[in-house]
Amino acid sequence: MGRVTFDHTYAGAFIGADELEAMGKAAESARQVLLSGEGPGSDYTGWIDLPEKNDREEFARIKDAAARIRENSEVFLVIGIGGSYLGARAANEFLNHDFYNLVNPEKRNGPQIFYCGNNLSSSYIRGLVDVIGDRDFSINMISKSGTTTEPAVSFRVFRELAEKKYGREGAAKRIFCTTDKARGALKQLADSEGYETFVVPDDIGGRYSVLTAVGLLPIAVSGVDIEALMEGAADAMKRYKTAPFEENAAMQYAACRNILLGQGKVIEIIESYEPSAQFVAEWWKQLFGESEGKDHKGIFPASVTLTADLHSMGQFIQDGTRNLFETVLDIEDAGEAILMKEEAADTDGLNYLAGKDVAFINRSAMQGTILAHNDGGVPVLKVNVPTRDARSLGELFYFFEFACGVSGNILGVNPFNQPGVEAYKKNMFMLLGKPGYTKA
Ligand code: PA5
């Protein structure tokens, strides 16, 4: 059994043993299709064996580049959108201090990390230019296609800033591009300017790319042990590829969510009681949303951060339209204890908690909420993550990727394409007057 485990006890009233057995068979067939190399989108299944087959020479270069950036930069910009930044942000926020960018630089012992190129807001760009100020910075421009508008716009601005500060040659030592190995505008530019490049493999799509250079360079820059991250993923890979349904947490998760979808539960809300997991949820939303939401099918992936959102979305989850289920990401490791102290006056009435750890209060809130939502008719699935470290996160990333590949195949969609993402681009290019795009 791996570190990451799955539990559907709190969805028991919705998932009968017979249904689970039948869906288990569907999940077994879906896994076979996924692993056969002949299923829908099979050209994009390079992520399956990646934890074992990653390019060791490039891995060493990533570690080397990260060490240089940590040494010579006070700020590190990660430019990318969708699958080209969400995984890195998820890992960096989950595995580091909640206030990583704000702690004393000596304690942080690495550059501040900011993400851009994931919107087209000029005030966001201006704000980031202000934040960099006259400090030393480096850039990782990440785009598989090399032509995505949002990151390309930001890259122009920050490349110019780097060239002004360091000169063209100096800037070239601080700009790192992660893109296709041979094709595309970014690869061409990087080669002509002498930027160091890293590869997004041909057979891995953006949302499955966190364990390639796409995620690994920015994750390594934040000081995370990327060897341990890959070890966790490799461990999960061996298990999920071969373990039977009864012992396969990822397949069980895929099966349960499809059973619930069959009962009209068309919204899945992922939730964690740790704010640092917010971007794990964002990464997960893209993974499942882009993989399954097509052909007028799929579960709408949503997220909340608890307990904060119990005071906003909690009402709807408890009592609103009964078309949703929850998946709790239970991060069991809360770190060093913070014990509540007794106060003489007890004006806030919290003395009954004296001697208790804040983590205990948080877990009680979680348990109470699960039971309340169950009473309100909401099935709750649980994914348990016992430790908050790189190895467990590697396992968790792979858990969701594998579950998504199986789930998409159960659903009968191609989990590896995203034709719907193109529609807005065509309209935007037409409005911008891009050559080749004319009004219909
Ligand atoms: O999953 C995907 O393929 C997308 O979300 C892409 O990651 C995103 O659109 C960015 O594409 P690119 O890396 O080509 O700039």
**Shape, please?**
globular
Number of strands: 10
Low-confidence stretches: none
What percentage of amino acids are in beta strands?
5-15%
Major sheet: 5 strands, mixed
Summed over residues and divided by their number, the pLDDT gives a mean of: 96
Report how far the terminal alpha carbons are from each other: 56 Å
Helix and strand element order:
EHHHEHHEHEHEHEHHHEHEHEHEHH
Q: Major sheet: order of its strands?
A: 1-10-9-7-8
Indicate the structural class: alpha/beta
Report the helical percentage: 40-55%
Bound molecules: 5-phosphoarabinonic acid
Would you kindly provide a written description of the structure presented here, covering whatever features stand out?
With 440 residues, the protein is an alpha/beta fold. Helices cover 48% and strands 12% of the residues. The protein is built from 16 helices and 10 strands. Helix 4 packs parallel to helix 9, helix 11 packs across helix 15 and helix 12 runs parallel beside helix 15. The longest helix is centred in the middle third of the chain and has 24 residues. It is globular, with a radius of gyration of 23 Å. The N and C termini lie far apart (56 Å). The structure holds 5-phosphoarabinonic acid. 5-phosphoarabinonic acid binds next to loops.
